[in-house]
Amino acid sequence: MLPFMPLLEQIALLALRALTGLVFVWSGFGHSRDPEGSAKDLGLPKPIVLLVGVVELLAGLGVAGGLLTRLSAIGLMVIMLGAMHRKAFVWHTGFWGKNASGWHYDLIFFLIALLIFATNGGEWTIDRMLFGAKTVIGSAVL
């Protein structure tokens, strides 16, 4: 193994977390700021859109900062499962969709959240600063 690979791995995880967090914070802020407009666009009730927006916003911040990283990643995975379901079974959008609006994008973000969950966000997280190598989710230690 090359000696710089562990450092590169942590840099890549941090960059992936930061970019993923930015995407979800931006999306969540938009849904939270205008839940009525988003509800019309998505065809969902306003309270559900507001909930989705808040989860995206908080989970995006959690993933980006590495705070409650696994719980945040689970939140994003649930959001992405919902998005894939909506696109595939309600809107009947194909994998690629029209104008790149298929559910491939959502699947990629689901897998990114799964990677973040599996790695606990890497070594450079607020979780590690607060809890060491263990992460607390509720009363369970993972």
Short description:
With 142 residues, the chain is an all-alpha fold. It has one domain. It is built from six helices and two strands.
- Fraction in beta strands: under 5%
The low-confidence runs, each spanning 5 or more residues with pLDDT under 50, are none
Distance between the ends: 28 Å
H/E order of the elements?
HHHHHHEE
Class computed from helices, strands and strand pairing: mainly alpha
Number-wise, the strands total 2
List keywords for this structure.
globular, 3% strand, single chain, mainly alpha, 142 residues, two-stranded antiparallel sheet
Provide an overview of this structure.
This protein has 142 residues and is an all-alpha fold. The protein has one domain (5-141). It is built from 6 helices and 2 strands; from the N terminus they run H-H-H-H-H-H-E-E. It has helices at residues 5-33, 35-42, 46-65, 69-90, 104-119, 126-131, and strands spanning 136-137, 140-141. A two-stranded antiparallel ribbon has the order 1-2. Helix 1 packs antiparallel against helix 3, helix 1 (5-33) packs across helix 5 and helix 2 crosses helix 3. It starts with a helix and ends with a strand. The model has no long low-confidence stretch (mean pLDDT 92).
